[in-house]
Specification:
The structure is a single chain. The chain has 752 residues and is of the alpha/beta class. Among the domains are: 139 residues, Nucleic acid-binding proteins (OB fold (Dihydrolipoamide Acetyltransferase, E2P)), CATH 2.40.50.140; 158 residues, P-loop containing nucleotide triphosphate hydrolases (Rossmann fold, 3-Layer(aba) Sandwich), CATH 3.40.50; 160 residues, P-loop containing nucleotide triphosphate hydrolases (Rossmann fold), CATH 3.40.50. Helix content is 38%, strand content 17%. It has 25 helices and 24 strands. Strands 2, 3, 4, 5, 6, 7, 8, 9 and 10 form a 9-stranded mixed β-sheet that branches. Strands 14-15-13-16-17-12-18 form a 7-stranded parallel β-sheet, with helices on both faces. It starts with 11 loop residues before the first helix and ends in a 14-residue tail after the last helix. The structure holds adenosine-5'-diphosphate and magnesium ion.
Length: 752
């Protein structure tokens, strides 16, 4: 590294071991390290409150909304009661001391303490206590607090006569309003404190509390850590960014994130820290993308070609605006001389196949070959059938290569790929085998990328003969919310088909229970009598395959019983069948020879049977939201009115019920994905589990801070467009930040 002044990031206090912070010491230091990952004083000030006690928002018990998520009340403890397993009172006291536990309840208030009872405090057998009830009064009314855990601590702390601040969720039990395990804080006293109106509340654990690091102690530690280190804290963002984005300085932000003087200061502090977090993340992702586009050459594909035009003009329909836009985006990438790395998102039925075919034809026009890889054999077959149809007006040769391709045919295909006579190859993982050699692979299209491992992809990309990597187009029907896609695939280009082909009918979605089975069977018969076909899907969860096949088989037997031959014909498809069996059954259904297809989720992606108008999903509560959405997308493709019927079990959790209700309420995959993310948190989103989040976010939330994220990304792009390698003096702070360990991870989101 040159002499360029490396910004001096840390000096003594920020770097010192947390044990040297006054009030910590070796024991607490060990706790802070294990529970919060805090090793140095500088780490502590980066542990942010997850909420604030706001002096201005204390509610009166009398006005307390019972459905509130949380309320904060400030009230005096009137009485505390320790209860045994049978609900009997073991001990009770009020401000005057202990009350006689002589069974004369409910007249507690009138009972007088005795000396014997006072002594008894020390002899209470806490292991016999099952519950602590605390009656509090704030002048407007009284409320009961209940503790099942931490009884000893709460009993000692909540001395009758004293006032505390309680924070919790009101609940109704046996017709009484109470609050279970509220958080306890010291009361807000008028005119007290540091000038901060709000006090931070930090995530805590039992270990921390038992080790003496209570909320109050945490506030104290934070205050002394800030006093010690704030003068040393160096700005991480260049001046010009603070000015252009109107951000407060880092020291200001740290001060006010912990001890805000008012809501406005807090907001400024939060915005600064969230922006910084998301901006640096996007900057590191986009920088990798810039580096790659500099270094990685791509095969230039300037030509569109006759085959493209022949195919295009023979289409029985007009492309949608979204399809046209996406093809333009892809065209621009292919002409650029850099390698394309594009994620194509489009809801089920949005017409991604057509885009794939036209893209492949561009590759062929430029003297290259294209491969289209599908995750399952059934899908590869279906793709092959569709693509062959689209290619009929062209002179391009296409073949299908899967695990069950026969040897002779396989040999011919290998030959065709090697000599270049085969322009387009459709297949499964069989395409990656070492024996498969291309003359010139210029484009790899991967359908449903999350089913392909990184290794498998790498092997495919290595197949290009002349050292230039093929262009990559990954297609997915999993609608990843834009905010998440930007974070996960920050260095990929993203295209979205956000418009459905015209004529798609809305699918009527219904949620029923087992009790409506007879009505459901009748409905299915009616639909079949109208000439329609029906999918019936059973859940399959990998951990318990056997059990699930039992479900499926029992379900199938019941279906055979309810829909006897003749006139009904059923086909069954599941993962334990051979490819041939699967194909035989799928074909029977696709050709209309069977009216009902009973299956596991193998039909989840891609399968196209326009005449099928009913999708019945058994044990619907066991599917994820986006899986349900994908399944529903299998119907509504023809001209008939379509239905999706969700059959739920008797015991459905609140969460699952919410999911099912949501599915009934909208057909927009992106709305569903956003809602799903809000409900479950981004880490859980289907299709992203394996990738996980590239970096753990400390303060920003992908579900809530989407606007800041897009702003941060746009701005990161702007900064890099002027200085792609962050070489200018004004960007040295940023360059130094990105050298930090957390940004040095392998290029996790790179898909090529
Ligand atoms: P996806 O792969 O995105 O789920 P497909 O490519 O299988 O969707 O297309 C779904 C159906 O819509 C197919 O039957 C296809 O022929 C049809 N389709 C595609 N594009 C259009 C369009 N622009 N107008 C009308 N129908 C279209
Ligand atoms: Mg498809």
């Amino acid at each position: 590294m040159a002499q360029a002044a490396e910004p001096e990031m840390y000096t003594r206090e920020l770097e010192s071991d947390i044990q040297y912070l006054p009030g910590v010491g070796p024991k607490r230091a060990a706790l802070l390290r294990s529970e919060l990952g805090v090793a140095r004083i500088g780490d502590l000030i980066r542990v942010y409150p997850f909420r604030y006690i706001d002096r201005s928002s204390v509610q009166r018990i009398a006005d307390m909304p019972l459905d509130a998520a949380y309320v904060q009340i400030q009230a005096r403890v009137v009485r505390t009661l320790l209860m045994g397993a049978g609900g009997q009172i073991i001990y009770a006291r009020d401000e005057n001391g202990a009350l006689r536990g002589d069974g004369s309840v409910p007249g507690y208030a009138s009972a007088r303490p005795t000396e014997a009872d006072e002594k008894a405090v020390g002899s209470i057998k806490f292991n016999q206590v099952k519950r602590l009830c605390v009656i509090v009064d704030d002048g407007s009314g009284t409320l009961e607090m209940v503790f099942f855990k931490g009884i000893r601590y709460a009993f000692d702390r909540l001395q009758p006569g004293q006032t505390f601040l309680f924070f919790g969720k009101p609940s109704v039990f046996n017709g009484h309003v109470n609050m279970v395990h509220p958080e306890i804080d010291n009361p807000i006293l008028p005119g007290s404190g540091t000038g901060a109106v709000m006090t931070g509340v930090y995530n805590s654990t039992d270990k921390l509390r038992n080790g003496g690091i209570t909320g109050k102690v945490m506030n104290k530690l934070m205050l002394s850590a800030l006093n010690l280190t704030l003068p040393e804290v160096k700005e991480t963002l260049p001046d010009y960014i603070l000015k252009e984005k109107g951000l407060v300085s880092l020291p200001y932000a740290l001060q006010h994130i912990h001890f805000p003087t008012d809501a406005y200061a807090l907001q400024k502090a939060q915005y600064r820290l969230k922006f910084e977090e998301l901006f640096l993340l996007q900057l590191s992702l986009l920088k990798q993308k810039y580096i790659r586009s500099r270094h990685e050459r791509g095969i230039p594909m300037p030509l569109v070609g006759k085959d493209f035009n022949d195919c295009y003009h023979a289409l029985p329909y007009e492309l949608t605006g979204a399809q046209k836009r996406v093809i333009k985006e892809i065209r621009a990438d292919l002409m650029s001389g850099h390698q394309m790395n594009r994620l194509l998102q489009g809801d089920v039925g949005s017409g991604k196949t057509m885009v794939a075919v036209l893209t492949a034809l561009i590759a062929v026009a430029n003297g290259c070959q294209a491969c289209i890889m599908a995750p399952t054999e059934v899908l590869a077959q279906q793709h092959f059938a569709n693509i062959s149809k689209y290619l009929r007006p062209t002179s391009v040769q296409v073949a299908l290569l899967t695990g069950s391709t026969r040897t002779a045919e396989r040999r011919a295909i290998h030959q065709g790929l090697e000599d270049g006579s085969l322009g387009i190859i459709v297949g499964t993982h069989a395409l990656i085998e070492d024996t498969v050699v291309f003359r010139r692979l210029g484009l790899a299209i991967v359908d449903e990328q999350h089913r392909f491992g990184v290794d498998q992809r790498a092997r495919l990309w290595a197949k290009n003969a002349d050292g230039i990597p093929p262009h990559v187009l990954v297609m997915t029907a999993t609608p990843i919310p834009r905010t998440l896609a930007m974070t996960l695939y920050g260095d990929l280009s993203i295209s979205v088909i956000d418009e459905m082909p015209p004529g798609r009918k809305p699918v009527e979605t219904m949620l029923i229970t087992e009790r409506r089975r007879v009505a459901l069977n009748r409905f299915m018969r009616d639909q079949i009598a109208l000439g329609r076909q029906v999918f019936v899907v059973y859940p399959l969860i990998f951990e318990s395959e056997k059990l699930d096949y039992k479900n499926l088989e029992q379900g199938y037997e019941r279906m055979v019983h309810d829909f006897p031959f003749p006139p009904y014909k059923l086909a069954i498809v599941h993962g334990q069948q051979s490819a041939e069996e699967k194909k035989f059954n799928m074909d029977a259904f696709a050709a209309g020879r069977a009216q009902i297809l009973v299956s596991t989720t193998v039909i989840e992606v891609g399968v196209d049977v326009p005449n099928a108008s009913v999708m019945v999903i058994e044990s619907a509560e066991r599917f994820g939201l986006s899986q349900l959405h994908q399944l529903r997308g299998r119907v509504g493709r023809g001209s008939d009115k379509s239905y999706c019927i969700l059959v739920k079990g008797d015991k459905v959790s609140k969460e699952s019920q919410k999911r099912l209700d949501l599915l009934c309420s909208t057909e927009d995959g992106f709305v569903l994905a956003e809602e799903d993310m809000k409900m479950r948190g981004p880490g859980d989103l289907e299709g992203t589990q394996q990738s996980g989040l590239p970096i753990s976010l400390n303060i920003a939330s992908l579900a809530k801070d989407g606007r800041i994220l897009s702003d941060a990304r746009e701005y990161a792009d702007h900064v890099l467009s002027r200085d792609p390698m962050l070489e200018s003096p004004e960007n040295q702070l940023l360059a130094a930040e990105l050298r930090k360990e957390k940004y040095q991870k392998e290029d996790y989101s790179k898909i090529s």
